[in-house]
Amino acid sequence: MPALTLILTLVCGCYEISHPAKGYQIIQNVFEAPIIAGTGGSRNLLLAGVPWQLAEQVDQENFIFFHRLPLSAWECKTAGCATRLQVVTGDGLVVYHEDRMGQDMHVCTIDYVQTVGRVHCRERRAGDQVLDRQQTTFIGDLPDASWEGDWFSRLTSGQHSWAQSNDPWHPAEDGIGAEWSEEPWAGDPIVGVLQRAHNVDLGACSLFIPWKWEDRDPRLDAMIGPMLGDRGLAELTLDELDTARAESASQNEMQDVAWFFDAFTNLWPRDIPSEFHYHVKETGERQACLRSYFAANTSLRARPGGWNIIAESIVGGLAQLFGIGDCKTHPMSVRFCGELGARDGAPTFTLDESSVTVEVEPYSRFKPSCNRNFVPLVKEGLADGVEKLTDATVTEQLTELTAGLPFEIRRVELTPSGAHFVVAQDYGDPQYAAMKAAGEALAGEPGVLCRPELGDSDFSHLDLGSTRLSLPKRGISR
Question: How far is Cα of residue 70 from the mean position of the Cα atoms in its chain?
Answer without folding.
Answer: 40
